[in-house]
Amino acid sequence: MPYDGQPLAFGGDYNPEQWPEEVWEEDVRLMREAGVTLVSLGVFAWARTEPRPGEYDFGWLDRVLGLLHGAGIGVALATPTVVPPAWFYRAHPEALPVTREGVRLAFGSRGAICHSDPHYRAAAQAITARLGERYGRHPAVVLWHVHNEYGAPVMSCYCATCERAFRNWLMDRYGTLGALNHAWGTAFWGQQYGDWDEIGVPAATPTVANPAQQLDFRRFADAQARAGFRAERDVLHRLSPGVPVTTNFMAAPSQCDTADYWAWAKEVDVVTNDHYLITDGRRTQVNLALAADLTRSLAGGAPWLLLEHSTSAVNWQPHNPAKEPGQMARNSLSHVARGSEGAMFFQWRQSRFGAEKFHSAMLPHGGTGARVWREVVELGARIGELADLRDTRTRADVAMLWSWESWWAQRLEWKPSAALDARERLDAFYEALYDRHLTVDFFPPSAAGDLDPARYPLLVVPQLYAAPASLSAALERYVSRGGTLLVSFFSGIVDEHDAVHPGPHPGALRDVLGLTVEEFDPLLPGERITVTTPRGETYEADLWSEHVVPGDGCETVAVFAGGRTAGRPALTRRALGEGAAWYLATRLTGDALAAVVDLALADAGVTPADLPRDVELVVREGESGTYRFAVNHTGGEVKVTLPDGRQAAVATGAVEVFREPR
Length: 662
Ligand code: GAL
What we know:
single chain; alpha/beta; TIM Barrel; Rossmann fold; 3 domains; nine-stranded parallel β-sheet; nine-stranded mixed β-sheet; binds beta-D-galactopyranose
């Protein structure tokens, strides 16, 4: 793990280039007061560091690094390659990205990058090399922070350079035009290609563009950005041996599907993530827990770091409420409970100008008299006290499969229902498990065959539209050895090219589930359907129904009670070996979904902790002992029962960490 021997990270993005030098000394003094141990420096500072082509000004960075180091504060030094300077674009306007509609975006914001542009690539490598040469062995530099949130705000560029690069990428992937035509199903709508140069990027088309082409273009765009990351990382590995290199992910916003983070996670030395609360009426702590669990899973269970969150309000939503007193600490410590090696913020000092001046910071416009500052100082002390848990890891209870590639495919146009939303199903199943106080480890579909049922008695597959044909056999291995599998509708339908698997649906799952789906029958908006169990329970479902035909050994647990699918199975269970495979053929939400999850949990032998809703109980364990985090989001005091039988109180809004030495 990086920065071994260091305390937990606490700090934020530090942008001293926005402030006169007199302020820097005060910054560092206040950082010490707040217990800051790490800052991300220089994320947007290319123009300051290289004001004219090839002319560098490192003096200011030398001084800032010196000040920070003198105060014992570590630095995650950024390569500023998310914002090339104005002079760069003047010389290379073709490095500005082009939208699907053919609009070339302008300079004057950030992230205006065509990842295929050779001038951009060369310039990014050059500034990275200069920084690596100068600071690669600087004692303050404990982490390299490459770029910023690749893909935000632009991942795919539709320019001529990208078109040529896309063709090369396709040649590597398919070898022959015949293979490409086959994979893309170009026989449909007469799209056959007879020459590589006929192939374009999926720019704006009169109606739906070839789905396989669109999917490959997403893969290509993601791979181009990753190649850019790798190039910078390799320069830093050479010039700064032993210092880990990362780039900050955005693993969990509900609408943000930019990158395939399973692929990115393999490239970084340490996984880092940014997380902001989205105020869309849902409980923000659930998305936070999901983000943290997913990030830990990207790290393969190893420690990771929350590189950005907010002390209070963000400023990029239509309405941006402040965090309530205590909420910042609750958020930070939930991330730590779920494996983060600290809690970092955007940003240290709230800006006076620019697009983010109303975004909260550690040191707000109100200065050290403000509530946020007082809470920051308290949190710094609290995180300082938790230094010993650096050798511990979070223990998960159950597992889920998640795939960004499948989500990309599911989001393409012209599905049986426009209301299908794999991410909504992920959130819904996660929430049901969260409400049972369970911690989730996520896996890509390729890992399904290796899952150990003893470690993960329950595996949930929320909506895995695209999956390889081999998935069924992999899951049969998991189930027959004692695992309980719970699969939700519209899973296992297509392959990696968005082509339907041969035979009845769901081709990649029908064997393990022991059923076939004859026909989809989605519901209209507002239409609802009743599902009943033999024991007389009834649930209201919406969005989806289908004609399930159970095979031998597949038992019907609940049926559709009315409508076009009346009498057909809505919930099935197939016993297989020592385990069971469940299938839910409709959309249940809230308590109804929780009831189905409870059936699967009982089948799996998982007994959730007896605690009120909105209390998190998360365990980190390791050499230094076991740390039990109890996070109380409720409006009253709650009691948690510790392993020795003791009852411990957790005040409203508080986080208690109960430590048991080894
Ligand atoms: C992040 C970004 C930061 C800042 C922050 C505001 O996505 O990396 O630079 O813009 O959002 O919430």
